[in-house]
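Predict the holo structure. Ligand: magnesium ion.
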Amino acid sequence: MRLRGDEHTDLARASRNRMLANALVAAFAAAIFAPLIGLLVVGPWACALAYLLYHSRQTDMLLVETGPRLGPATLERRQSLNSAALAGCWASALLIFPWLSGGEQQQALVLIAMALMASSTFVFSTSPLSVLIYIGIVGTGAIAALGLDGQWQAMGGAILFTIACLVATIEVRTTFVKARLAEAALAEKEEVVSLLLREFEENEADWLWEVDTARRLRAVSPRFAFALGQPQGEVEGKPLLEMIAGSRWSSGQFPPSLHDLAERLKNRENFSNMLVQVSILGEERWWELSGTPMRDEQGRFTGFRGVGSDVTEQRKSSEKIAYLARYDTLTQLPNRLQLTEALGEALRYAVQWRTRCAMLMVDLDRFKAVNDSLGHMTGDKLLAQVSARLQSLMGENQMVGRLGGDEFAIVIRDASQSGTVRDLALRVIHRLSEPYQVDHHTLYVGASVGSAEGPRDGASVEEMMRNADLALYRAKDMGGGEHCRFEPELHATAEERRQLEVALRKALGRDEMVLHYQPVVDAHSESVVSFEALIRWNSAEHGFVSPGKFIPLAEDTRLIVPIGQWVMRKACEEARNWPEHVKVNVNVSPEQLLEPGFHDEVVQALAASGLRPERLEIEVTESIFLRDASVARNALEQVMALGCSVALDDFGTGYSSLGYLRKLKFSTIKVDRTFVQGAAQGSAESLAIINAVVAMAKSLQMTTTAEGVETGPEAELIRKLGCDKIQGFYFGRPMTAKDASSLFRMGRELRA
Ligand code: C2E
Ligand code: MG
Ligand code: MG
C-alpha cells in the first residue's frame, strides 16, 4: 500500500512530463505532416490526442489526490485505457499519415514514435502496466507501418527496439520497486529505533549520551544534562571527560575507572556496563556506562553513542549491605559472620599444616551494671573503648570481633607456640580491667576469657565456639577476671546444669520445694521481730540443692517467676500462724519485679492469707537498680503503697552506690554477712562500713539488720555498733514452718 502511495506521489510529476512530451512531439509531427496531407486530417488527430492527453492527466491527478485508498483499481484500469487510447492515436498516425503522404516523412514519424517509447520507459515508470500497453501499441503501430511499406530490415529493427523497450520497462520497474522497498524498510527501522530510544529515555534514571570524534558532548538530552548537573545548553559541545572528572580534570589524576573510560574512548573501543566513578558538582557518584563507536557510510569514525545510568544509590546500598553483613556497626569490628569465617579458615589451615589455631571468647564483667545504671548510650561508648583496646592488642594473624552484647571473640590463626593463648588472654583481661573514662564517669569493668584450641578442642567452627563458650562460662562462674581453657569435663558441668534445669522445672509440681524460716531478733530485747522465708529444694534426682545454686539458675531461665509466686503465697499463709507483731521477710528477685503482674501477685497473696500488709517485708538486693531500675522501683512503690515494707538485702556487696538509698524509702538495710564477719575479725574497713551504714540509716529513718551473726561476741559487737536487728545462726538457723510456729507456742508456754 505504501509503495503504491509513493508511486502515486511521483505520478503528478511524471504525468505532466508525459503530457508535455506528447504535446511537444505531436506538435512536431503535426508541423511535418500538415503541409503534406492537409490540416483536415492532422487537425482532428491533434484534437483527439489533446483530448486524450487531457483525460489521462485528469485520471492521473485523481489517482494522485485520492492516493491508493479510493478505488485505485478502477482508476488504474482507466489509466491503462487512456494509455491504450493515446498509443492507438499514435499508431493510427504511424499508419495513416505516411500512407496519405505517399510514404514521405515516414522515417521521421517512426523515429518520433521510438523516442516516445524510449522516454516513457524511463520517465514514466510508476504505472508499468499503462507503459507496457503504450509501448506495445505504439511499437506495433511502427512495426506495422514499416511492414506495410515493405521495409523489412527497418521493421526488424523496430521489433527489436520495441522488445528492448518492454524489457527495459520491466527492468526499470523492478529496480524502482526494490529501491522503494529498501527505502521503506530503512524508514521503518529508523522509526522503531527512535521509538525504542524514546521509551528508553523516558524510563527511570537512564539516559543516552553521544560524543563526537573529539569526545565532546553532542545532542545532549535533558535527562543527561540533569545527570551532569548542568543546563542542557551549557554542556553541549563540552568534553565529556571534563564534565565528569570534576576537580581532577586539571590535575589529570583520574580514578582508575575514569581512566579506563578515557582509554576506551581514545582507542574507539566498544564497552558495556562499565562502572565509572564520576564527580558531579563536587559530589562523587557512580555511573554505569555503555558505548559503541559510530561510523558513517564510508566507515569513518564519527564519535561514540551509548547509554548510561546513575547507580550511586544502588552501589552505596550494596556497599553498605556488604559492610553490614561483615562488620559490627557499633564498634566497627568484624561481626560474628566474619569471625566464624576466619575461624573456619584458621581450622582448615591448622589441619593442613598440622599447627594449632585458637578461639578466645571474651565477656565483660559487670557491663550490665554500667548499661543499666548509666544508660545504653554510655554503655555503647564503653563498648567502643573496649573494642579499641582489644584491637590494639591484636598481633599478626589475630582477629578480634564482636559477637553481640558485651561478648567479643578473638581468632588466632597460628597458636602453635605454647603460651600464646594464655598470654593474650591475660593481656586482654589486664587491659580491659583498667578504668575507662566515659562521659565524666570513671568506669570499672573486668573481663573473663574462655578459650578453645583447634583442632584439638573442636573439629568444626560450631564445636570450637561452643567449647570456648563453655570455658568462658566457667571463667564467669569463678567470679570473673579469669581465663579458663576448655576441658572436656566442662561438658559434664554444662550437662549437669541442663539436667538441673529440667529438674527445677518439675520441682514445684512435684512438691519438692519447702520454705524454711530464719528468725530476726531485736538487737536489744533479743525477741523475734520477724522471720525470713528461705527456700529449700530437695530434688528427687539431685538431692538437697542450695538456693545459692538453683536461684541463679531459676533467674536465668525465668523459672523464678512461678517459684517466687509460690514463695510469696506460702510465706504469707504461714505468717498467719505467728503473733501479730512478727513480720515475714520474703526475698524477691529482680526478674520478679520486672514482671507486670507483681503487684497483683502480692495483693492476692495477702488477700488469700488475710495477712496485714504491714507484716510483709520484701527483700531486694541492689541488683534491682542495675536493670530497668524505674520499672523495679515502680513495682516496689506500688507494694509499699499497700502498706508493705521493703528491705535492702546484702548491702555492700553489689555495684554499690549510696545513691540507691535516696531513690527508694527502704525500711531496713541488711548489712551483709561479710562485713559482720570482717568486723568480728577486727577489720577496720568493715567496722567503718557498718558504722557508716548505721549512721546513714538513722539519718534516713531506716533500721539496720546485721546478717550472719554466728557467735555471742559477734552479737555483742553488732549491738555496740548500733544495728537494730540481728539475724544469724547464733539466734537461730533457718527452720521448718512447724518449728517456727512452735517457737511462739513454747514462748507462750514458758511465759505461762
Ligand atoms: P539472703 O537473702 O541473704 O539470705 C540469707 C542467707 O544467709 C541464707 O542462705 C541463710 O541461710 C544464710 N545465713 C543466715 N545466717 C547465717 C549465719 O549466721 N552464717 C552463715 N554462714 N549463713 C547464714 P540461704 O538460705 O542459702 O540463701 C541464700 C540466698 O538465696 C539468700 O540470701 C537469698 O538471696 C536467696 N534466696 C533464698 N530463698 C529465696 C527465695 O525464696 N526467693 C529468692 N528470690 N531468693 C531466695
Ligand atoms: Mg534475704
Ligand atoms: Mg542477705
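Residues 518, 533-535, 546-548, 551, 564, 567, 587-589, 619, 649-650, 673, 707-710, 727-729, 734 surround C2E (ligand 1) (CB under 6 Å). The longest strand covers residues 283-295.
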